[in-house]
Design a protein that fits this description.
It contains three helices and 31 strands. The protein is mainly beta. The strands form eight sheets. The protein has a five-stranded antiparallel beta sheet, with no helix packed on it. The longest helix is centred in the last third of the chain and has 6 residues. The chain is elongated, with a radius of gyration of 28 Å. The N terminus is likely disordered. Keywords: Phosphoprotein, Repeat, WD repeat.
Length: 464
């Protein structure tokens, strides 16, 4: 764990978890694939490509927002589907916390095919402290009688068999450990790779989405789910789009949204029908014909979609932009924020090195004003939708060591962004911020950068 000083824009680098090895030394299994705060912000979970889940706990003994290691467990193992001759990776795609109802924590983790509900709790280890063999409860006369024959000795005190000194074994507390056990395993419900899970506000159900279907589950029932969205065509040759992300409404338990590779967002209402193929609202922005190119369909694919905490707005991320939609206006977004406009001339190169298919996440801050998303060179952006400010930070150890933490607050009027500081010909596409999580109550964020977890905090409190 490392600590460093302040960054501009009111944000401060607080912590870094991860080994100090060079990028070349990092194994594929150590790369973090998902990050998620719980509903209180006191706990933080990460999942990696090795199938491990690591939990961090807020360190209350420290000032500010600091975390310490809580526990680690192996969530998924590599599997092989012999019917389809397909390897199933152990990589953790998503982690979602369930609302805490007692001393234990419950969280869902999923790889491409199987979802598991884990119970994490403190377990007391006890040891036998005393039993009949702990000491000699009977007077050992023979030891002090010299050569006297045992038959001539008086009977032992107390009398053998009387039970006077009989003691039951007693257990005493030895240690407290954090245990993780799988309470439910939700398997065999997805033919395609799971990209999203979302717990409902009712606390009883959740949805899981793969490329073509969305299933509704009851947390207490692992052997049955209901298919609520199915976009699989009768003839797979007619397939034109896939589902990329899905999320429940934060308040209304009957509403959810899902996005597609065609750049569309659909709002569905489970009260309309059992199968939600007919959406309630369809959010899509028509593309400018002057920008149309071979790559148009690829870069319009939405990689992440999120409701604001009050459910009024929807945040979506495609390859080049962040878009904020008003739930009541589906014709166009209320704000479009350019992220990778400087890479538009590099789309051919990005297609060849597969970076054009990178899936960046997008997040709302706790105040409903700030939005967060990642970029290359380990940069990430924090925008304020009300005053159009943009804070660009870098989650990179070398930047901290050189004390050159990139952070500059720029106004929209300057027509400036991270592109102004980035040499387009010198972008490190191997360093990318794909996964992050925003603290639910304060301006603290967790950023996954390859195998490292960075914690940033802002000096300014959350305004509600």
């Amino acid at each position: 764990m490392e600590r460093d000083g302040d960054a501009s824009g009111g944000w401060r680098f607080a912590q870094c978890f991860g080994d100090k090895g060079e990028v070349e030394d990092i194994t594929e299994a150590d790369i973090i694939s998902t990050v998620e705060f719980d509903h209180t912000g006191d706990y933080l979970a990460t999942g990696d490509k090795g199938g491990r889940v690591v939990l961090f706990e807020r360190n209350e003994s420290k000032k500010g927002c600091e975390y310490k290691f809580h526990t680690e467990f192996q969530s998924h193992e590599p599997e092989f589907d012999y019917l389809k001759s397909l390897e199933i990776e152990e990589k953790i795609n998503k982690i979602k916390w369930c609302r805490r109802q007692n001393a234990a924590h419950f969280l869902l983790s999923t790889n491409d095919k199987t979802i598991k509900l884990w119970k994490v709790f403190e377990k007391s280890l006890k040891v036998v402290a005393e039993n009949n063999l702990s000491n000699d409860g009977f007077r050992n006369i023979a030891a002090h009688s010299g050569n006297v024959h045992p038959s001539l000795l008086p009977p032992p005190e107390p009398l053998v068999g009387s039970g006077t000194n009989l003691r039951l074994p007693t257990l005493t507390h030895h240690d407290t450990i954090v245990a993780a056990v799988p309470r439910k395993i939700y398997a065999n419900a997805h033919a395609y790779h799971i990209n999203s899970i979302s717990v409902n506000s009712d606390g009883e159900t959740y949805i899981s989405a793969d490329d073509l279907r969305i299933n509704l589950w009851n947390l207490n029932i692992s052997d049955q789910s209901f298919n609520i969205v199915d976009i699989k065509p009768v003839n797979m040759e007619e397939l034109t789009e896939v589902i990329t992300a899905a999320e429940f409404h934060p308040i209304n338990c009957n509403n959810f949204v899902y996005s597609s590779s065609k750049g569309t967002i659909k709002l569905a209402d489970m009260r309309d029908s059992a199968l939600c193929d007919h959406h309630a609202k369809h959010f899509e922005e028509e593309e400018d014909p002057s920008n149309k190119s071979f790559f148009s369909e690829i870069i319009s694919s939405i990689s992440d979609v999120k409701f604001s905490r009050d459910g009024r707005y929807i945040l979506s991320r495609d390859y080049l932009t962040l878009k904020i939609w008003d739930v009541n206006m589906d014709s166009k977004p209320v704000k479009t924020i350019p992220i990778h406009e400087h890479l538009r001339s590099k789309l051919c190169d990005l297609y060849e090195n597969d970076c054009i298919f990178d899936k960046f996440e997008a997040l709302w801050g706790p105040d409903g004003r700030k939005v967060l998303t990642g970029s290359y060179n380990n940069y990430f952006h924090i925008f304020d939708k009300d005053d159009d400010s943009d804070v660009v930070l870098q989650a990179d150890k070398s930047a901290f060591k050189a004390k050159k933490l990139a952070g500059a607050k720029k106004n929209k009027g300057n027509n400036a962004s991270a592109a102004a500081q980035i040499n387009v010909d010198n972008v490190d596409f191997n360093k990318k911020i794909l996964h992050s999580s925003y603290h639910p109550r304060e301006n603290t964020i967790a950023i996954a950068a390859t195998n490292n977890l960075f914690i940033f905090s802002a000096n300014n409190p959350v305004s509600t």
